[in-house]
């Protein structure tokens, strides 16, 4: 098991990619602090991991609040005596509008949850850490029309991660960032997300591999970067976007149907499409 005896905090771990990362890390031998907002299903995820024989405990709190972020790190350090891995996964994707119609409150929510949470958790965890993995996005590399603040927030994380990687290398700390493309979660599929259903139908054709990725496929990348197998990797943006970044045109539309099927997974995930639960979503008229 590549993460045996490691202690890891995974933020935004109640649904979607975060849930998958928590399950994958536990399967690889880590003890996982499943962290997230009240009502974000983190307790359910921790219980599910434990029921499957893994080692997990939940931490419920708003990690964009200074005292909560500090308390989460202190909880892990006090309970386990150390902290090996921080996964800065928490974030939101909650509005669809051209920039001049993008509501200020949605901009503020996006920066608060996507940027402030990652900064605070990194700030408080660094004295204990050896490894940080961020959830970025291909949107942070390419920009994202109609979702410009979201792409901007991820671009910040990319640059922030690189700075942390260089700054902390003398102390033996590695920092990297996984940059997913469209993943099969509530953010890209379902009637209540920020992407209108008629546009959701075209997503797979925009991806050269012809389909959305699965949360488990992304969790596998996180597990690699968090492990000693990635010991010579730091300051890296690892694109896991199905080829979206270099693509031109609707390459995915030409992929044969049998090649569009995702690989069979092994993780027992319940909340892949619960990432927008209790969140207000805005689509400009």
Descriptive key words:
37% helix, Rossmann fold, single chain, two-stranded parallel sheet, 285 residues
N- and C-termini, Cα separation = 50 Å
Compute the average pLDDT.
93
Oligomer kind: single chain
- In DSSP terms (H or I, runs of 4 or more residues), the helix count works out at 9
Q: Let me know the largest β-sheet.
A: 7 strands, parallel
CATH class: Alpha Beta
Total E-strand runs: 9
CATH superfamily: NAD(P)-binding Rossmann-like Domain
How would you spell out the order of helices and strands? Answer: EHEHEHEEHEHHEHHHEE
Radius of gyration: 18 Å
In the CATH hierarchy, the third-tier topology is known as Rossmann fold
**Poorly predicted segments:** none
Helix/strand/pairing category: alpha/beta
Helix % is 25-40%
Short description:
With 285 residues, the protein is α/β, with parallel strands linked by helices. The protein is built from 9 helices and 9 strands.
Overview of this structure, please?
There is one protein chain. The protein is an alpha/beta fold. The protein has one domain: NAD(P)-binding Rossmann-like Domain (Rossmann fold, 3-Layer(aba) Sandwich), CATH 3.40.50. It contains nine helices and nine strands. The protein has a seven-stranded parallel β-sheet, with helices on both faces. Strands 5-9 form a two-stranded parallel sheet. α2 (42-51) links the parallel β2 (31-36) and β3. α1 runs parallel beside α2 (42-51), α1 (16-27) packs across α9 and α3 (66-80) packs parallel to α4 (104-125). The protein is globular. The protein starts with 6 loop residues before the first strand and ends with a strand. The mean pLDDT is 93.
């Amino acid at each position: 098991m590549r993460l045996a005896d490691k202690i890891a905090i995974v933020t935004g771990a109640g649904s979607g990619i975060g849930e998958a990362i928590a399950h994958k890390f536990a399967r690889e031998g880590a003890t996982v602090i499943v962290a997230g907002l009240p009502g974000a299903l983190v307790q359910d995820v921790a219980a599910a991991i434990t029921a499957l024989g893994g080692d997990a405990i939940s931490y419920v709190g708003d990690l964009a609040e200074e005292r909560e972020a500090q308390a989460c790190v202190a909880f892990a350090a006090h309970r386990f005596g150390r902290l090996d891995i921080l996964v800065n996964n928490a974030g939101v994707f909650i509005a669809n509008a051209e920039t001049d119609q993008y509501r200020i409150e949605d901009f503020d929510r996006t920066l608060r949850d996507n940027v402030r949470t990652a900064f605070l958790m990194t700030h408080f965890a660094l004295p204990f850490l050896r490894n940080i993995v961020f959830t970025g996005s291909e949107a942070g590399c390419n920009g994202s029309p109609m979702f410009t603040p979201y792409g901007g927030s991820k671009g910040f994380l990319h640059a922030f991660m690189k700075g942390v990687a260089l700054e902390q290398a003398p102390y033996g700390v590695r920092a990297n960032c996984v940059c997913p493309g469209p993943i099969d979660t509530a953010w890209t599929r379902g009637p209540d997300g920020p992407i209108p259903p008629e546009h959701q139908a075209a997503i797979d054709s925009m991806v050269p591999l012809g389909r959305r990725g699965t949360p488990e496929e992304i969790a596998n990348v996180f597990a690699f970067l968090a492990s000693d197998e990635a010991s010579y990797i730091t300051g890296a943006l690892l694109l896991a976007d199905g080829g979206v970044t270099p693509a031109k045109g609707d390459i995915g539309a030409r992929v044969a149907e049998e090649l569009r099927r995702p690989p069979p997974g092994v993780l027992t995930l319940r909340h892949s499409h619960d990432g927008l639960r209790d969140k207000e979503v805005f689509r400009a008229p």
